[in-house]
Design brief:
Layout: H1 16-43, E1 96-110, E2 120-136, E3 139-149, H2 162-166, E4 176-187, E5 190-198, H3 218-223, E6 227-235, E7 240-247, E8 260-268, E9 272-280, E10 294-304, E11 307-318, E12 348-360, E13 364-375, H4 381-384, E14 387-399, E15 402-414, E16 423-435
Antiparallel strand pairs: 1-2, 1-16, 2-3, 3-4, 4-5, 5-6, 6-7, 7-8, 8-9, 9-10, 10-11, 11-12, 12-13, 13-14, 14-15, 15-16
Length: 436
């Protein structure tokens, strides 16, 4: 099976469930940090990489081989929902089980959140992954589960103003986050999945090193959902790919009866892939505060040995369907003024893109990414400013199972949520991870 946040908070109180969840996961997170450090130190005593990779990631049966989650030769998240397949052949038609895990620790500093006091922190997190499959006649059937183990922020936060209170949902981290859970079936060129899946809209071909996925291009962190919950069908004759999905429109359970339709048409070979995608819905969320999340876009990959170039572009419709005060938001808010209402039944819109250059080697993986988002003018300085984001990532493979990595994100000077004058932004992360 191919590997490919709805957080909620009530302001100025800590839910008992979260206290219990944090206690349950505290020991797990301590183990995550210990495994990361000890695993890297022990692994460093082995011969340098021994010129071997990890066990093969769930691979595309034909076309470009990119992992869609936390396994693979580079042990980072890549890809989209296309080219789904199962991780191993069924030799004796008995169920096959594959499990994996990642332990990760890092230090992050993000100037965009300096006004909250939650801008610089050490952190630990992990990933648990399991696949099971079985051959049933001409069908391969199976299931996939991917669980993120996250470390919550401290409960003592700065909430002295309404605007600081309205952004607390961004720091309300679920200790255990269901990233994927779905059933799947394949028969030759046909593939079906049901549950929480990697979004079939577009494809990405760059490393994602954080469970929050905040280390990604603007259109991926602000516009396109990383996951969808629903049903998907895919037909892949030869080099072609046709995908149709009916989903909730958001990552998790729905809060209204409306559903989103997603369509992608693509082509993929060993060195080239491209596709066009659309997503349409009248809004995501409860009726009185629905937010648009419609797109039309393209994705592209060109690969030559260890070098690859990829890109995505999207025409994005967003904002509230009806008048709504952003200060009443109890879930994630946007740092870029996208929590905006244009007119009843008329979404705000804009166009964004990114260009990504990468090189994968025996010891190093390097990536440079640049993207922009051009919103329509609505008379709001924060919203109307063109957003530009540059990303640099470097991953050093210390051993076949241990990576040291760093990433730097820089943004242009724009108005900020709380600032006396327009400011730029810097987001740096330095970490290590151990992969099983």
């Amino acid at each position: 099976m191919r590997l490919s946040r709805a957080r909620s908070c009530r302001l100025q109180r800590i839910e008992p469930e979260r206290r219990r969840g944090g206690a349950i996961v505290a020991h797990v997170l301590l183990a995550v940090q210990s495994v990361t450090i000890v695993g890297c130190l022990l692994g460093a005593t082995h011969s340098a990489r021994a010129q071997q990779a990890l066990p093969a990631a769930p691979a595309v049966t034909r076309g470009i081989d990119v992992a869609e989650s936390t396994s693979g030769a580079s042990r980072v998240q890549y890809g989209g929902a296309g080219g789904a397949s199962f991780p191993m052949a069924c030799d004796d038609c008995l169920p096959h089980l594959r499990i994996g895990a990642i332990a990760r620790s890092y230090l992050s500093a993000d100037s965009r959140w300096a006004w909250t006091g939650q801008d610089t922190t050490f952190a630990a997190e992990g990933v648990l992954l399991a696949d099971v499959e079985q051959q049933v006649g001409d069908w391969q059937v199976g299931a996939r589960a991917e669980l993120f183990v996250n470390q919550p922020f401290d409960a003592n936060r700065l909430v002295d103003t309404p605007i600081r209170q309205s952004f607390q949902g961004n720091f309300d981290v679920d200790p255990l986050e269901l990233s994927q859970l779905h059933l799947a079936a394949r028969n030759d060129d046909m593939y079906f999945s049901l549950g929480k899946i990697v979004t079939p809209f577009g494809r990405w071909y760059f490393p994602v090193m954080l469970n929050s996925r905040l280390d990604a291009p603007f259109i991926r962190t602000e516009a396109i959902e990383w996951r969808e919950t629903g049903i998907m069908a895919m037909y892949e004759p030869d080099i072609w790919s046709f995908t149709l999905a009916l989903t909730n429109g958001g990552e998790d359970r729905d809060t209204n009866t409306s559903k989103a339709g997603i369509v992608r048409f693509g082509i993929q070979t060993e060195s080239f892939a491209a596709g066009i995608s659309t997503k349409m819905q009248d809004g995501v969320g409860a009726s009185g505060q629905k937010q648009y999340n419609n797109h039309a876009g393209f994705d592209l990959l060109v690969r030559d040995g260890p070098l690859h170039f990829s890109a995505e572009g999207v025409y994005d419709e967003y904002g509230y369907r009806q008048p709504f005060d952003p200060l009443q938001i109890t879930w994630d808010r946007s740092l870029y003024g996208r929590d905006i209402h244009r007119a009843v039944g008329r979404p705000a819109h804009g166009f964004g893109y990114y260009l990504n250059f990468g090189c994968e080697g025996d010891y190093w993986d390097l990536m440079v990414n640049y993207g922009e988002f051009h919103p329509m003018d609505l008379g709001d300085n924060l919203h109307d400013a063109v957003k530009r984001r540059g990303i640099l990532k470097a991953i050093y493979h210390l051993t076949p199972h241990c990576d040291l990595w760093m990433q730097i994100i820089v943004e242009n000077t724009i108005p900020r949520v709380i600032a006396d004058a327009p400011q730029g932004a810097f987001f740096g992360v330095f970490g290590a991870q151990f992969t099983l």
